[in-house]
Amino acid sequence: MAALTIPSERNKWETKSCELELKSGGDTFFDYGWNSTYRCKTKGFIENEKLVFEGDDHSLTIWTLEKYNHGTKVSIEYTGLWIGDLGHFGMDNMAFGTYQFIRNLKSVLETSSDIRSSFWKSWIGVFHTTIQDKAIKGTKVVCVKEGTPAASLLKTGDIIIEVDGKAVHSHDDFEIHVTEKVAGQYVHLIILRNQQEKR
């Protein structure tokens, strides 16, 4: 629980800086770095069991801890309203960020190694979400940002099915491969556009 509730401990694996007020209605603020912050209220706190934060939109982040074998099982649940492709992108993106930080928590606890320097090193400028069609595996482009490497190459609706020779089955498959590359490196994609494969 210390890794979640003591700011100096949380800074070791997740946040750049944070302020935690662990009482109902307490003000809480997280600065994750990468220009990403989150301000919320503490909704509930049961020591060594549960920690709940509520955002301005009333969405909840619920951390639950349970004894598991010789360790602790950490569960995270988000509530919210995610509508349409951009909403699904937001959901995928938040879940991916959580996955990255939990990877780092595991690394810090087991080896005392903070691996955040390998995260989000590059971005090609595309918002995308795991394709929901069971017949197709990939991640669908839902927005391309102007002035980025993707702007002249990808279009909304493209489905990315391969990156650098590796199959893409989900948002995470693509995101982890691209964001851990050194900025300036090339990525080679295979996409489906209007049901036609393009390289």
From TrEMBL:
Residues 108-195 form the PDZ domain. Pfam families: AHSA1, PDZ_2. InterPro entries: ASHA1/2-like_C, PDZ, PDZ_sf, START-like_dom_sf. It comes from the Bacteria. Belongs to the AHA1 family. This is PDZ domain-containing protein. It comes from Heyndrickxia camelliae.
